[in-house]
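Late entry, evening session. Most of the bench is empty. Finally got around to the prediction I had been postponing all week. Sequence below, unchanged from the version circulated by S.P.
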Amino acid sequence: MLTVVLLVFSTVLYFVVSINLDRNLNQVLSLRARDTAVSLVAHWLLERNRRSYSYSGDIQSFDELIQDKGEFGAFIQRWAFVRKGINEKAAVRLIDLNGRVVYVADNFPAQDIAATRFMASRRKFFKRVDLESGKYRILHYPVWSKDRKQYSIQVAASLSEHDASLGNLRTALLILVPLAVLLTSGVGWFLAWRAMRPIDVMVEQAKHISAFRLNERLNVPGTGDELEKMALTFNDLLERIERSFLRLRQFSGAASHELRTPLTVMRGELEVALRRDRSPEEYKEALQTTLKAIEDLTQIVEDLLTFARSHTEEDTLKTEPINLVAVAKTVHASWQIFARQKGVQLIFNEPHIALNVLGESRLLERLLANLLDNAIRHTPEGGQVTIELEVKSENAELRVKDTGPGIDPQDKPRIFDRFFSQRGKPEDGSKITTGLGLGLCRWIAEAHNGSIDVVSEQFQGATFIVGLPLAR
């Protein structure tokens, strides 16, 4: 593109300069021709006023002088003598009405050009003449007076300087344009190399990033331009991909871990029951254990499916006003049987006002159910689990208290992480908590623009607190 632009520019420049030189030369020739005509008339008036010469006949005007060949020829000789005296070097030739050359300057180059070749034209014109002595431009300038042609003036000028100027310009362009192309190409290549070098580095770094090295990031050039934006965007993409892979690994690990226990229980019970004939009571006990394992398995599958939904960013909640008191009553009634089987007292301190929040009742029921499942499972027999609801500022606060062994202070900051698991120590009787349920509780609370926290002292129970914005 640069070469094409320079070629077009050079061509236009060359022709513009050539046209301007031609125009200037033509103007010079026209001025010299007019000056010659004026000089002839001025010399006639000067002679007439001084009475230096007495003209024969009734010659009273310059037009009459021109008609008399003898007098006009003598006048031209006197004018030529004066012209040489003032050192006039213009290349001029004078031609009368008959095509006869009445005067020619010594430096006029076209002595071998017949004067009659120029007489056919009634207007001035320019002609380029190529002679052995060189190239010239000649102006044929007819002089008229009273609609009658009097004589013609021819002025010549050498084209050597004109052609030399164009030749020098042409040579300069032929040298400078390739040099400019080479120089700008080199500079452009260098600048492009400097500009593309960070991209090459990014490409090499990106080649080494794989599913097992997603923690690596591209170097961000501090250029403040599109390259920096691209690197930041790519690193952000890698961050999201890494989180997705991490969630996938955690999901796979949690699924295999959580599903293994109930399946192992079911397989063990069925294998033991089939080893030999059993009494109806023993078969009933085995079926009850298997049924309990199936219930646990169903709960785990539902939690995993909910987690899978929570990983889909495009999925949005279908919110509607929900009476949190009614949700708590429904879940409390459903978990009473499980609490009695564990020997745990489940209490619901029902408030006297309706607490409405925006959300999905199914998810809010799952939130409270997971908290109750966690509390009842880890509260010893004879203990107590309490559900409380009250208004705090502009939030509805749901609390689930238990009298279990509490949570290890070292694990408390991480119990809401997805798939985090805490295994209790046999000597202190602390809880065995899987992060599957509590991580799901955290996601449900945050999906409803709420929060979840825990207050616990080891061996003094735990209180899980969920804050949800009240519906206006």
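Two things to note before I forget:
The longest strand covers residues 134-145.
Confidence is low (pLDDT under 50) at residues 421-435.
Will write this up properly tomorrow.
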